[in-house]
Write the structure tokens for this entry.
Amino acid sequence: MSEYDVYKFLNQSTSLTDFMNDVRGKRLSNNPIFVGTPVNSFVQNKNAPWIRITSIPGDLADYADDERIIEYPRFQIDFWIVKTKAQESVDMERLIYKLMRSFGFERYYKYRATDPDMTDLLMVQSNYEFQGLA
């Protein structure tokens, strides 16, 4: 499984897209879910919230008869949201968690902080590990 699989899964979630559009107060021309960092021209307060998906290095697996039977790929999912939208940030974090659980992932780390480069935005980080079969 790759970060592109996670992207496809999150990108097809209308509940997530609709939520982000409601928080932002407008629909963007493209769904603001990215593998890696979006282009600099996109990274503006008016486009928040948006999501970035990145892989976490590693290749954990369980084996039987010299074959992988369970893999544990890990991904970091960050999102940026205007920090005055505290309740919405909690709701978005819960929605992403619920979606990722339904896709076979469990969260093992989370962190929230003001983005040092964009002080009007809160960056919410969650790290997930896949719990499914290879």
